User: What shape does this take?
Amino acid sequence: MHKILHFGPDTCSVVSKLLKEKETEASGVEPYDIEDADRNCKALVKKGIVRVADIKFPLPYRPKSFSLVIVSDALEYLSPRYVNKTRPDLARVSIDGLVIFTGSPGHRKAKVSESKYGRVAKMRSSSWWVKYFVQTSLEENEVAIKKFEHAVTKMSCLKMPNFLTYAIPLTF
Assistant: This one.
């Protein structure tokens, strides 16, 4: 059984798809207000499968609660100070790794680049993220990368997005 945590503005959609996969248990954290969300999203929140929480605060999960933590379109809204504070907490709840999808100025998603959520996205380049990961002593984990690539090919809901700049499971 794979336990996956997704964190990002499309959490309800991703979690709904993950729940359809065999041997997968999915949870999510929606970082923004769900007032305008569809019925399915509100039902996931009501059941406790998806939570609404700000990424700046500690996650309400025990250490090593999930096989994999996937973060998409969420870190762009944080200052480097909060990225430094948030990343260890995301890693804390993961067993095998942390996969981070970040936007790139050349490939923006409308939802990410707008200030719809009260914060303007800091569209950092892929080189900024690579430099950040190197400076924080994170390393690529080849075994975890292969596991993630295998999962992407098996799970129809985990398509590699065109705005990916860094999606590598990391060792901590």
In short: Confidence is low (pLDDT under 50) at residues 104-116, 160-172.
